[in-house]
Amino acid sequence: MKNGRRNFLKSMGLASLCTTLPMAACSSKNGPVAPVVIGNGKMKLSFRPYELQLKHTFTVAGNSRDTTPVVLTEIEYEGLTAYGEASMPPYLGESQESVIKFLNKVDLGQFNDPFMLDDILAYVDSVDEGNRAAKACIDIALHDLLGKLVDQPLYRLWGINPENTPMTSFTIGIDTSEVVKLKTQEAERFRVLKVKLGGGNDREMINTVRSVTDVPIYVDVNQGWNDKYQALDMVYWLAEQGIEFVEQPLPKTAVDDIAWLTAKSPLPIIADEAFQRLGDVAAFKGVYSGINIKLMKSTGLREARKMITVARALDMKVMIGCMTETSCAVSAASQLSPLVDWADLDGNLLINNDIYEGMKVLDGKVTLNDLPGIGIRKL
Ligand code: MG
Question: In the prediction, which pLDDT does 64 show?
Answer without folding.
Answer: 82
